[in-house]
Amino acid sequence: MRSLRIATRKSALALWQTEHVAARLRAIEPGLQVELVPLSTRGDEVLDRSLAAIGGKGLFLKELELAMERGEADCAVHSLKDVPMELEPGFEMPAILQRANPFDAWVSAEFADLQALPAGAVVGSSSLRRQAQLKARRPDVEVRDLRGNVNTRLAKLDEGQYQAIVLACAGLQRLGMDERIRQTLAAPDWLPAPAQGAIAIECHHSAVRWIDLLRELDHAETRLQVSAERAMNRRLHGSCQVPVAAYAERDGERFILRGLVGDAGSGELVRAAAGAVVKELTQAEALGVEVAEHLLAQGGRRLLGG
Ligand SMILES: NCc1[nH]cc(CCC(=O)O)c1CC(=O)O
């Protein structure tokens, strides 16, 4: 009987995602032992500043990667949207699981949607991407930072510090809090983070004896979708400093990829979209680069500070 050690963050959502991966793996390999290695990352510990202000790539990954390098864990489970466009040398992503709901959720006890808010109302989100899309629609509402895990953010909403908050549908659904979703902020109007709703497994090249098992959880269609979105983000030099959103949708043999670059302060949004036949990874990535080029040409370059 072999035993797999999975590095994970300690939030309720991260633990749910890791338990989910563990259950899927046990179903493939009966008798597999799974041990969780819960770790705290810089992104979890520094809560008084926005992620953009902390800066740096892989704020939610580093400690997990160090544990894998030291041989203390065999793989790690991440929300793919938190994973930098380029993995650290020596690491790979053997599996991207089937995507859950990729969209954002409007969460509010009092107000059914963004339009129903009175002027001056306070909406909570620390995501520049969400801030920009909120400001674009309602320049008269105040968008205030809101860090912390899903439960912390909901508690701050319930205390009345905010009239509404925006969270990922996938996180709420995984934690059994579907009923909190007052409205789904769906494409094409409102775009999510590249790869939102997809769970990824990362491992070090030295974990050869686990690779075949981990690869079994890969979902080819999801990998195509998120590869288009991430290729767009990569071409824009996607960091956490500038709001970027993307969503790839299948239409028969084709993908439609929609993307936007924004400014969180002013609410200015630059949008672009393109379609192409996508059957393999290189086609998905080419589509991502094409939409990025459109965004750059149409004003995105200025917003990205170039
Ligand atoms: N930023 C943290 C984070 N990373 C992934 C999710 C949601 C789950 C997912 O996208 O798979 C969340 C919570 C949120 O944005 O509300």
What is the strand and helix layout of this fold?
Layout: E1 3-8, H1 12-28, E2 33-38, H2 42-45, H3 51-54, H4 62-69, E3 75-79, E4 91-96, E5 104-107, E6 122-124, H5 128-137, E7 142-144, H6 150-158, E8 164-168, H7 169-174, E9 183-185, E10 199-204, H8 208-215, H9 220-235, E11 244-251, E12 254-262, E13 269-277, H10 281-303
Parallel strand pairs: 1-2, 1-3, 6-7, 6-8
Antiparallel strand pairs: 3-10, 4-10, 5-8, 5-9, 11-12, 12-13
Helix pairs in contact: 9-10
The structure holds the ligand NCc1[nH]cc(CCC(=O)O)c1CC(=O)O.
Function: Tetrapolymerization of the monopyrrole PBG into the hydroxymethylbilane pre-uroporphyrinogen in several discrete steps.
Organism: Pseudomarimonas arenosa
Subunit structure: Monomer.
How would you describe the overall organization of this protein?
- By secondary structure, the chain is of the alpha/beta class.
- The protein is 34% helix and 24% strand.
- The protein has helices at 12-28, 42-45, 51-54, 62-69, 128-137, 150-158, 169-174, 208-215, 220-235, 281-303; strands at residues 3-8, 33-38, 75-79, 91-96, 104-107, 122-124, 142-144, 164-168, 183-185, 199-204, 244-251, 254-262, 269-277.
- Strands 2-1-3-10-4 form a 5-stranded mixed β-sheet, sandwiched between helices. Strands 7-6-8-5-9 form a 5-stranded mixed β-sheet, with helices on both faces.
- β11 and β12 form a beta hairpin.
- The longest helix is centred in the last third of the chain and has 23 residues, at 281-303.
- It is globular.
- The site of ligand PBG has 10 residues, from β8 and α7.
- It comes from Pseudomarimonas arenosa.
- Belongs to the HMBS family.
- It holds the Pfam family Porphobil_deam.
- The modification S-(dipyrrolylmethanemethyl)cysteine is found at residue 240.
- Monomer.
